[in-house]
Amino acid sequence: MRISRFFKIVSTFYRFGLDDFLEGHSKLGIVHKLFGLLPLRRDTSAPLPQRVRLALESLGPIFVKFGQVLSTRRDLLPPDYADELARLQDRVPPYDGLLAREVIERSLGRKVDELYLDFDNTPVASASVAQVHKAWLRQPDGGRGREVAVKVLRPGIQPVIEQDLALMATLAGWVEKLFTDGKRLKPREVVAEFDKYLHDELDMMHEAANASQLRRNFKNSDMLIVPEVFYDYTSRDVLTLEWMHGIPVGQVDRLREAGVDLTKLSRYGVEIFFTQVFRHGFFHADMHPGNIFVAADGRYIALDFGIVGTLTDTDKHYLAVNFLAFFNRDYHRVATAHIESGWVPKDTRAEELEAAVRTVCEPIFEKPLSEISFGMVLLRLFETSRRFNVEIQPQLVLLQKTLLNIEGLGRQLDPNLDLWDTAKPFLTKWMNEQIGWRGLLRTLKHEAPQWATTLPTLPRKLNDALSSANSELLISGYIQLMREQKRQNWLLALIAILLAALLLKNWL
Question: Model's pTM, two decimal places?
Answer without folding.
Answer: 0.72
